Amino acid sequence: MFHSKNILGPETDIDIIIEAFYSKLVKDDRVRDFFTIVDLEAVKRKQINFFNIILSDDDKNVQNYMKTSHTELVNDFGLNDNHFNALHEVLAETLCEFRIEENYREKLLGKMEQLRPHVLCK
Fold first, then answer.
1. What is the assigned CATH class of domain 14-119?
2. Could you report the per-residue pLDDT of 22-48, keeping only the tens digit for each?
3. Which of 21, 38, 39, 42 could form a disulfide with 94 if both were Cys (CB 3.0 to 4.6 A apart)?
4. Angle at CA 109, nearest 5°, toward 16 and 82?
């Protein structure tokens, strides 16, 4: 089990949030096809690490990593703004369901939005 360093608030177990987030994504018609071509368990582990990095403000190299790791999805599978919007929406809903404090939600979602051009290789 992976644990945050309380990056989403005291007593928050980030792996449970990630599990809920991805269980929604694999059912979402807008993005579910992307999860048939990846190792979902590996993606979940990377997502936990990603949250820890961007919320700790130690995210200097994250932009290049996001572009590199999503290039194939953009070029070969058509990852675009609509898909990014879906991920953003589902994450916001999931964070609300787990009653993550607004300041943590805003920080995470804001950092995610800043990475949009890098994820979409723009």
1. mainly alpha
2. 999 999 999 999 999 889 999 998 888
3. 21
4. 100
Q: Which residues contact 60 (CB under 8 A, 6 or more apart)?
A: none
DSSP 8-state assignment for residue 36: G
* pLDDT at position 107: 87
Which of 69, 15, 13 has the alpha carbon at shortest distance from 38? Answer: 69
Chain position carrying tokens 């787990």? 98
Residue type, 31: V
- Provide the whole-model pTM: 0.85
DSSP 99: T
Task: Choose among 115, 117, 116, 94: nearest CA to 104.
Answer: 94
Q: Indicate the Cα dihedral angle 9, 41, 31, 86, nearest 10°.
A: 10
